[in-house]
Design goal:
Length: 250
């Protein structure tokens, strides 16, 4: 019964998060933790795998509609890929409560940023390629490290940054999915190399993510209103952060 409930939640989360190219690990980690699975041994590595699958499926849909900026997002993707496994290895040396507190802070920041971005009009100009490459490489490295450390993919850092650079919501989501896919799988491999895995749960949630992400990414491309998606996403993040903080304090 527990596996069934977790699978339904992950299915819904993958639908929502795939629309923004964020993967869904911001929900996957706390859901798996609340379900009683060990944070470092199961929740974080599995969340990274599911995150990568979610954004990979979204990336395929975005690519078909020519929304991905492969050249502009390359520097961010490369540094995120390199630093994700370093973050994964570092998680072994940080206490669980410290990881959860850091996770909740990052989620709150993402929620505030997304709520702010939902009120802004779509940008009409974009930053030069040189500036995008330099800033993207620096932020990508940081996002990749955080992704591997906390099992969150890093998309909540990359997507707002891309919007700030001048990308439209859909193009930012698509390019973010490009970077997050690689950072997620890289971080996952960093954890798996240390023997962290749960095959039964992995198979169930993989099926749920494939279905949810396929539906969500196609809905984003065809029908979703950017401002509404960002507002819903921000509210979900606020709820998750508050729940985690209460769990640590109480």
């Amino acid at each position: 019964m527990l596996y069934f409930v977790v699978t339904l939640i992950i299915l819904a989360a993958s639908f929502l998060f795939s629309m923004l190219g964020l993967g869904g690990a911001l929900v996957y980690v706390p859901v798996l933790k609340w379900a009683g699975f060990p944070l470092k041994e199961v929740a974080i590595p599995l969340a990274l795998l599911l995150n990568g699958l979610t954004t990979l499926i979204a990336l395929i849909a975005f690519t078909k509609n020519k929304l991905v900026d492969w050249k502009g997002g390359a520097a961010m993707t490369i540094t995120a890929f390199i630093f994700a496994p370093i973050g994964a290895i570092s998680s072994e040396y940080i206490p669980v409560k410290s990881l959860l507190l850091l996770f909740s802070v990052m989620v709150l920041i993402a929620a505030v940023r997304m709520m702010f971005m939902s009120k802004q009009p779509e940008p009409k100009s974009i930053m030069s390629f040189k500036k995008k490459a330099v800033i993207g490489a620096l932020v990508g490295g940081f996002a990749g490290f955080i992704a591997g450390l906390l099992g969150i993919g890093g998309g909540f850092i990359m997507a707002p940054l891309l919007m700030w650079m001048g990308y439209t919501t859909k193009r930012a989501a698509a390019t973010s999915a490009f970077a997050v896919t690689f950072s997620s799988f890289s971080g996952f491999l960093g954890h798996v190399s240390q023997g962290h895995f749960n095959w039964t749960l992995t198979i169930l949630l993989t099926v749920a993510v494939i279905l949810g992400a396929t539906l969500g990414s196609n809905f984003m491309v065809a029908k979703a209103k950017s401002s509404r998606v960002k507002q819903i996403f921000a509210l979900v993040l606020f709820a998750i952060a508050i729940k985690i903080i209460l769990g640590i304090v109480l």
